[in-house]
Amino acid sequence: MQGFQMDLVSEHRLAEMTPVEKVRFIIDEVKEGKILVLEKGLSPEEEASLIEMTMTLIEPDGFSGIEMESYPGEVDTSIFGRLLKKNTLKTRMTVIGPADQLKTLRKDRNMISALISTQK
User: Fold this and answer.
1) Domain 6-116: CATH class, spelled out
2) Secondary element (H or E) of residue 25
3) Pfam families from the entry (predicted)?
4) Which member of 1, 9, 23, 77 has the greatest number of CB atoms within 10 A?
């Protein structure tokens, strides 16, 4: 049977990791060909670190990199956010997978449509 593995990763599991551990976890899983759906997306700094590290690991006949899509962030409108007048963005769900298997077809504010190929 040919297919792919998709792991749904809870916000709680990622919260227990440092930013470096998150990046390493994601890269290790994607290098194994898994598609990850993160309940809570990464911070902009974590996304930048993930992209930077991924670029150093790309090989012509090996690891092709990652495809990553997130819902656009939403401004923190909690009482604390308003009292502190912080315009921090709340991160939302993120889909990450091998670049040679996951292709984003369409993305808008509330939906990510992707094609997952089982052939490399």
Assistant:
1) alpha beta
2) helix 19-31
3) OapB
4) 23
Q: How far is CA 56 from the centre of its chain?
A: 18
CA–CA separation, 47 vs 84, rounded Å?
25
Nearest to 65 by CA among 30, 38, 91: 30
**CA distance linking residue 87 with residue 49, whole number of Å:** 22
Can you give the three-state secondary structure of 28-69, one letter per residue? HHHHCCCEEEECCCCCHHHHHHHHHHHHHHCCCCCCCCEEEE
pLDDT tens-digit readout, 92-118: 789 999 999 998 888 887 888 888 887
User: In a 3-state reduction of DSSP, which class is residue 115?
Assistant: strand
Q: What confidence tens digit (pLDDT) does each residue in 31-70 have?
A: 999 999 999 888 888 999 999 999 999 888 888 899 998 8
Domain boundaries, the chain: 6-116
Q: Under a CB-based contact definition with an 8 Å cutoff, are residues 55 and 65 in contact?
A: yes
Two tokens at 38? 């993160």
